[in-house]
């Protein structure tokens, strides 16, 4: 048995589709992720020899500045070998902090409070 749509339902639907909101909803959807043809990146122009030499000069200057910064840091006792250790410790700290925030979130949920209230209750700053 084939079902048919009642006529009064169809007419009321047409009335709803004629509202300004329905027209907006039925308009074509434009995803913010997809770029329109107008937003395509511009073609890069070919650099002149002078422009390339200027860029090379700027990059060489920046390289010298960075070398001087490295020398300064090394003269202050910093060692490149220690860098990975510090990075690892920062990762470990962030993992512990994330776990603590999860626990606070669960406690807040069980207690019917907000995480901010628990921070205040336990004397924690929002930076902790």
From TrEMBL:
Role, per record: Component of the swi5-sfr1 complex, a complex required for double-strand break repair via homologous recombination.
Source species: Limulus polyphemus (Atlantic horseshoe crab)
Any matching Pfam family: Swi5
InterPro entries the record matches: DNA-repair_Swi5
Encoding gene (name): LOC106460431
Similarity comment: Belongs to the SWI5/SAE3 family.
Record protein name field: DNA repair protein SWI5 homolog
Superkingdom of origin: Eukaryota
Coiled-coil residue spans: 42-76
Keywords: Coiled coil, DNA damage, DNA repair
Residues covered by region (Disordered): 1-21
Compositional bias segments (type: Basic residues): 1-17
């Amino acid at each position: 048995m084939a079902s048919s749509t009642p006529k009064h339902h169809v007419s009321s639907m047409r009335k709803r589709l004629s509202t300004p909101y329905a027209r907006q909803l039925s308009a074509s959807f434009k995803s913010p992720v997809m770029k329109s043809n107008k937003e395509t990146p511009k073609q890069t122009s070919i650099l002149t020899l002078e422009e390339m030499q200027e860029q090379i000069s700027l990059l060489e200057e920046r390289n010298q500045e960075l070398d001087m910064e490295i020398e300064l840091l090394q003269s202050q006792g910093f060692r490149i070998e220690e860098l990975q250790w510090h990075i690892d410790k920062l990762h470990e700290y962030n993992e512990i902090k994330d776990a603590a925030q999860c626990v606070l979130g669960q406690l807040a949920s069980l207690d019917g409070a907000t995480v901010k209230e628990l921070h205040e209750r336990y004397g924690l700053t929002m930076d902790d």
